[in-house]
Amino acid sequence: MKYPWSSITGSVAHSRGFTVLLVLFLSCCTFTSTEAYDALDPSGNITIKWDVISWTPDGYVAVVTMYNFQQYRHIQAPGWTLGNVPHCCKKDPTLVDLLPGTPYNQQIANCCKGGVLNSWGQDPATAVSSFQVSVGAAGNTNKTVKLPRNFTLKAPGPGYTCGPAKIVRPTKFSTSDKRRTTQALMTWNVTCTYSQFLAQKTPSCCVSLSSFYNDRVVNCPTCTCGCQNNKTDTRNCVDPDSPYLASVVSSAGKDVNTPLVQCTSHMCPIRVHWHVKLNYKEYWRVKVTITNFNYRMNYSQWNLVVQHPNFDNLTQLFSFNYKSLNPYEGLNDTGMLWGLKFYNDFLSQAGPLGNVQSELLFRKDKSTFTFDKGWAFPRRIYFNGDNCVMPPPDSYPWLPNASSNLVFSLLTTVIASFASLIFNDECNGVLQNA
Question: Per its UniProt entry, which superkingdom is the organism in (predicted)?
Fold first, then answer.
């Protein structure tokens, strides 16, 4: 007998399959793989603002300002480059920032930083950079001007995706004495967002863990940032004991953006070690060490972002700066750490000086605090804005098993009692025989 709902079920299944395909098709059309979202810095971006300050016979003169609105991701040396900006006869020109020390008659405000931009959260005063550009054959009125297209921002490598230029309300400028205000003739913005996947296909940092209550040290996962080949193959990694180390590190013509790392099991340029050091009655203490394994990079103005539920009770920090990050209202579990100026804000390349460290003192919240099940270790760590690879949770150095200790304690008690009974019986027998 053929049941009447069999055909209905088939049609429903067919309809569901078509619906799934339609949703997938629409999602592919709506979203792109280059879009970036950082849960710890949801509104972070680099905004490039063009302010037209005067018209020329065939174009305009504009002041271009770059704002790094990212909380902890900065642009480090050798600095940014900006492509496809129509400022010369080439169709795809490249702009680079002037270096510090440029003659004053060639400078404007916030110029000449060598392309280096610090993050907004770490130092807003140095998170802005400006230059002036004259554009011809681009229209010389608000209605005829041609907006630049296809921006490419390298900082200094890939990773940023820039959207189209959008016309916004003209910028107002105030003189230094605040007595006079002028306005740009026209303003448009370009917004660029960062994707770690576009910046590099492999991770750039990893995390290792240890604690005072467990002898086990959990290292970075093997091959986190690549796998180690033959130690004599200097194209992949460098043995620190190699007699050719100096010549390899100083070899000219190598791209500073391509890491030359010390041979390790994880092969990462940066390792962050989190050690649960001490336990007090009301507090607990952590030691954080950052080690540079990259022979080609000195990290200046580095920073570390750590997510842990006890950051709302951070009491004291030694030899690092600290700023609380609150990406979501009512949640204070993320902090940014960076070095003290002229002391440890410079993380030298691999070698004896290639590490910085500090200690953090947390006050215990009795309602949440525990050393059990890896609670004392961070949930997430970023170095210079890149998400570091954590060890798998089941490998964390947990507290010794309390149930095993209890069984052992009970077993010891039983054996002792049994031995005591035997000993008493023997003693009684000896006394009776005597």
Answer: Eukaryota
